[in-house]
Amino acid sequence: MQITVTVNGQPYTRDVEPRLLLVHFLRDHLALTGTHWGCDTSNCGACVVHLDATPVKSCTVLAVMCDGHEVTTVEGLERDGELDAVQKGFAECHGLQCGFCTPGMMLTARWLLDNDPDPDEGRIRETISGQLCRCTGYENIVRAVRWAAGHEAGRAAAGEGAREGTRT
Amino acid sequence: MQVPARFEYERAQSVSHALALLDRHGPESRVIAGGHSLLPMMKLRLARPEVLIDINDLAELSFLGVEGDELVVGALVRHAQLLADPTVGRFFPIFHDAERVIADPVVRNRGTVGGSLCQADPSEDLSAAFAAVRATAVIQGPDGEREVPIREFHRGPYETAVEPGELLTRLRVPLRPGAGSAYEKVERRVGDWPVAAAGAQLRLDGGVIAEAGIGLTAVGAEHFAAPGAEEYLTGRAPGEEAFAEAGRIAAEDCNPQADQRGPVAYKRHLAGELVRRVLTRAAGRAAGRAGDRQAGE
Ligand SMILES: Cc1cc2nc3c(=O)[nH]c(=O)nc-3n(C[C@H](O)[C@H](O)[C@H](O)COP(=O)(O)OP(=O)(O)OC[C@H]3O[C@@H](n4cnc5c(N)ncnc54)[C@H](O)[C@@H]3O)c2cc1C
Ligand code: FES
Ligand code: FES
């Protein structure tokens, strides 16, 4: 059947079988291979993407269920050629080694910061608890998210200061 | 690579449309909500529906809130929505306790209350929580609505009172002023299904237990409840000894099976201990709420 899914802001229309999973739609039909495909059983979180701004495990969502909806993948995190604060945090804090879990981790982290700009370590660990990393021991992932939180807070404050500066 | 067998896909626009689609496609059709139980089963070919009817657009099934003297939980309410709702936390902390330990935050974004109850997995956490608070399930079919007490809803593993051609639309839970509730689970690792779990709700009146509700999951308790222990508690003063004895009765009455999560004796031990603990916490919360009320009066 024909579906139209908006991925990273761009609508894609494709003819797909109803049994096609979202993860394979993204990887095999749209060539967006940043979304990884791991356990296939909704346990590892490598396949996490945003569906209507909420993280979901794309190995357990049908592509046809996304017809008319919006999906964001890791490819959609950067804006105007600039990496998202979460991506920068992972780079700065060595938040990845092999990188297999990283796209899913970053999308869940982005959602967390959108809802709680200053999460403590416990909150971060709880939020990524459905996602497995076999390399980092999670320590640097937590640091990366904290780095992003601190950076965004700094930027927001600087932005406000600048606006106030022009007003006075 | 796990791929479901071929099926046709239909998206329902309303409850009546979903019912019409179920009627048109017959017993080989199945509704899909979050899909987090159904799709894994279809990938393993344990389920092979010929038609899937997607109910995710049915906003009328996403209602969550107090209506009169009841909490109403729509079948399509996501786990995350139940967990985030302050009214639910205030009246039924049992649901927040349970939701915190169901799967993980990302799965909870997608899985639904109705899907959990209809899946009727013998280890489903919400089945025990809704059994403890004695909810009523509202089922809609071609001939209209009918209501089924939650303790008659589950007929056995993976079997419910929802007949082919019908939909679970919502759960109704009576508000019990001054009651306290709690849920606790033992799992092998974060986000896993329970080795055993228990939920309880207590309403106290004049220093004695006026009403006790106890739910159990993963330990072969019939209808996810512990009626023997509830009966024992009713009319008694709350306290450590009574709660330990209720735990002992519940453990004796359930029927756990040995599997990769543990042997029978261990699960029975957990059932008794968890019942004791949730009764203690539920009583504490009931006392806290009674205090609140007096302070407010
Ligand atoms: C990794 C993982 C971990 C999990 N851990 C836990 C856990 O610890 N504890 C726990 O309790 N659960 C756990 N679950 C299960 C989860 O709670 C359920 O999978 C999920 O909530 C089921 O809801 P759903 O909306 O996804 O149902 P679906 O998969 O869409 O449906 C399940 C069944 O219910 C039927 N159905 C759905 N909605 C209706 C309706 N309104 N009327 C009639 N029939 C309906 C479907 O036809 C299907 O047969 C886990 C799941 C995963 C993937
Ligand atoms: S591939 Fe989806 S959770 Fe592992
Ligand atoms: S970086 Fe290798 S799995 Fe996380």
From TrEMBL, chain A:
Named in its record, the pathway it takes part in is: Alkaloid degradation; nicotine degradation
What region holds the 2Fe-2S ferredoxin-type domain?
Answer: 1-77
Q: Which UniProt keywords are given for this protein, alphabetically ordered?
A: 2Fe-2S, Iron, Iron-sulfur, Metal-binding, Oxidoreductase
Q: Identify the Pfam families for this entry.
A: Fer2, Fer2_2
Superkingdom of this protein's organism = Bacteria
Does the keyword field hold Iron-sulfur? yes
Q: Which InterPro entries match?
A: 2Fe-2S-bd, 2Fe-2S-bd_dom_sf, 2Fe-2S_ferredoxin-like_sf, 2Fe-2S_ferredoxin-type, Beta-grasp_dom_sf, Diverse_Oxidoreductases
Any GO molecular function: metal ion binding
Report the Gene3D superfamilies cross-referenced here: 3.10.20.30, [2Fe-2S]-binding domain (1.10.150.120)
The protein depicted here goes by the name (2Fe-2S)-binding protein
Q: Which organism is it from?
A: Planobispora takensis
* Lineage, opening ranks: Bacteria, Bacillati, Actinomycetota, Actinomycetes, Streptosporangiales
Automatic annotation (TrEMBL), chain B:
Tell me the ranges covered by the FAD-binding PCMH-type domain, including all copies: 2-178
Name the Pfam families on file.
CO_deh_flav_C (PF03450), FAD_binding_5 (PF00941)
Q: Which domain of life is it from?
A: Bacteria
Give GO MF terms, alphabetically.
Answer: FAD binding; oxidoreductase activity
For this UniProt record, give its keywords in alphabetical order, as a comma-separated list.
Answer: FAD, Flavoprotein, Oxidoreductase
Tell me yes or no: is Transport among this UniProt entry's keywords: no
Q: Carries keyword Oxidoreductase?
A: yes
Check the record and name the InterPro entries matching this protein: CO_DH_flav_C, CO_DH_flav_C_dom_sf, Diverse_Substr_Oxidored, FAD-bd_PCMH, FAD-bd_PCMH-like_sf, FAD-bd_PCMH_sub1, FAD-bd_PCMH_sub2, Mopterin_DH_FAD-bd
User: This chain belongs to which protein, by name?
Assistant: Carbon monoxide dehydrogenase medium subunit
